[in-house]
Amino acid sequence: MRIMEDALLLRVFLGEDDMAGGQPLYRAILEAAMRAGLAGGTALPAPMGFGGSRGIRTGINVDAGAHQPIVVEIIDRPDRIEAFLPLIEPMIPSGVVTLEALKMRKIVPGSPAQA
């Protein structure tokens, strides 16, 4: 069965070396999302990026160390994402958080597929 519903995609742009509570910030955010019961999330390495520092951060540069950009994406219904934001904003020392409205199509396992 396929269910179409309104959703928000939350993106958090940060660095691989950003930490929260002794662990990588991207991991802390995803664990918080899982505990909150959100629909799903992932952390994606980005080969290159820049932000407020105006310096290019890249995992390609051997001198960059652990400064590779990371993008965390989490998706769920708008009300659930809005309720989740205040939980993670104190964890983020600097960076950008974006919200994008979209349609989410859930494919429920075990049900016959419908067009």
From TrEMBL:
<dbReference type="InterPro" id="IPR011322">
    <property type="entry name" value="N-reg_PII-like_a/b"/>
</dbReference>
<comment type="similarity">
    <text>Belongs to the UPF0166 family.</text>
</comment>
<dbReference type="Pfam" id="PF02641">
    <property type="entry name" value="DUF190"/>
</dbReference>
<dbReference type="InterPro" id="IPR003793">
    <property type="entry name" value="UPF0166"/>
</dbReference>
<protein>
    <submittedName>
        <fullName>Uncharacterized protein</fullName>
    </submittedName>
</protein>
<dbReference type="InterPro" id="IPR015867">
    <property type="entry name" value="N-reg_PII/ATP_PRibTrfase_C"/>
</dbReference>
